[in-house]
Input
Amino acid sequence: MEEKNNHGIDVDVIEKHFREILDKGLKVDIKDPNFLDTPSRVAKAYKEIFAGLSHTEEDIKNIFKTCFPTNYSGMVFEKNITVFSMCPHHFLPVRYNVSVGYIPEGCGVGLSKLVRIIELLAKRPALQETFTQEIVELIEKYMHTQGAICMVRGEHYCMQMRGVKQKDVSTTTSAANGIFLNKPEMELKFYELIRSS
Output
């Protein structure tokens, strides 16, 4: 079995306790070939799904470290960034569709960097509201911008598979800072881009 990584996700512990959940909690026959290696598979899957918990502040800083000088003063906009997360209340999947924009202030980052930071944040169990806010906060903290804005649409399987069982319900959250708060027309432009592009 793999050792825990340097930042603390311990796959051995996950495997051990998931075996106990199957055996003693769910009363599943863990000798059944279908379940024999399930604890190990779940541990490996959790290591990937929750990889964001292993990243340090330095890892986040490195994503943003390369800056490209630019005189561009319009909006940099990315839409339809699809990531998966887990809700912190039931540890069931959430599918997020993210749109994000920012106004450079003499510096821009590679377009893939925004996707990478969103993917990293999604790999931590957190409320959708927190996830949304963190995206704009990290852009503000590590990039030279006049402002950042984000809208997230989430499909929460804890609402679709259990409880109210609303399979078509979605939740939308948004967060903004800088010019997007000071100039409402910039915020409107962002939402127009989402609708029209």
Observations:
- Residues 1-6 have pLDDT under 50 and may be disordered.
- The first strand starts at residue 68 and ends at 69.
- The chain has two domains: 11-49, 57-196.
- The CA atoms of residues 4 and 188 lie 46 Å apart.
